[in-house]
Amino acid sequence: MSGVVQQQESMSLAGQAATAGQGDWPGDGGGNWPRNPRLYDISPIAGPTGGGNIVLLTGTNLQGTFQVTFGGTPATIVSQSPYGNSVTVTAPPHAAGTVPVVATTSYGTSNPVNYTYTAGPGPTVSVLVPDNGPTAGGTAFAIIGTNLTGASVTFNGVAATGVSINGSGTVLTGNTPPGPAGNVPVVITTPLGNTTVSGGFTYVPPPPLPVTTGISPNTGTAAGGTAFVITGSNLNGASVTFNGVAATGVSVNAAGTFIVGFTPAGAVGTVPVVVTTPFGNAPVAGGFTYTAPPSPVTTGISPNTGTAAGGTAFVITGSNLDGASVTFNGVAATGVSVNAAGTFIVGFTPAGAPGTVPVVVTTLGGNAVVPGGYTYV
Question: Tens digits of per-residue pLDDT, 310-326?
Fold first, then answer.
C-alpha cells in the first residue's frame, strides 16, 4: 500500500513541475516570464548601414528598457511607452546584412527580431508644397527629394493618404490627413531610413463663418430704399440679399461687426435676408417685412393749361410722390422726375385734344388724381 501512495505522490509532483514550466520564457529561470521583455515587431524593417534613422520596437514588458542592440551594437534609446508596449531608438551604424535586435530590461533580454542593413543613401527632401492647408485635411501635396522609393509619409504621426511616388524616387504626392491647427512634423520613412521635412506643415483653422444678430429697422416700404443696419460678427466682405435681390450701397466696418446699406424694392410681406461672405452665408433672424408704400397725395399742377401740341413744362405738388409716373387723359407725360423728398414732380405734357382732361399720378402706393385736371387750348 505504501508503494502505491509513494507512486501517486511522485506522479503529482511531476505534474506540478510540468505545469509550472508551461509558458515560461526561455532563460527566465522558470519564474520571471510574466515580466520578461518580449518583442513582436520592428518598423521599419530595414535601414541604411550608416544608421541614424528612427526605429520603433513594439512588444510587451518593455518598461525600463535600458539597452537595445542591433547585431550586438547598442542603439540610442529615444523614448519608451509607460505601458511597456514600445521603445523608440535611433539605429546604430552596422555592416550590410540582417541582424538580430533585442531589448534588455532588469528582468532579462527579449527574443530577437530581424532588421536589415542596406547599403545605399537614405531619403532626402528639398521641398514640400504647399506647406500649409486646412485642419480638415485633404490638401494635395508634393514632396521633392531623392531616394523616396517605397516611402510612407506621416503628418504629426498620422499617415497621409493616396501616396504615390514616381519611378525615379524623386517626387512623392499624396493628400494630407486631418490635423490640429498649427505647425506639425512631417516624416518620410523608407526602407533605407527616415527623414524629417524641414519646416513641417502648418494646419490652418477654418475661417470664421459670418454671424448675424439682427437688422434695424426690420420693416420698410416695398418701394425699397430703406436704410438698414445689420449687426453681427465676421461680416467682412459681405453682400446682402432681400428675398434674393441684392441690397445697394452695402458697406461693412473694419471690425466686421455691422453692415449698412439700402433695401431693394420688394413685394409686400416678410422676406428672408441673407448675408454672404467669402466664407459662408448667414440668414438674419426674422427677415425683413416690406410694407405697402403710402398712397400718393396731389395738391395741384402748375400751369394748369397749355397748348394742345404738348411740350408744356409742368410741376405737380403733393407728397408720397416717389417713383411716380403721370398721365394726361391716359397719355404718359415725358421727362418725368421726382425730387428726393417726394413732394413734387416735373415733366412735359403730351399732346392732347382741346379741353380739360384728367391728370393722374401713379406710384407703388396707388393713384392720385390732380385736382382740376389740365386744360388743353
Answer: 999 999 999 999 889 99
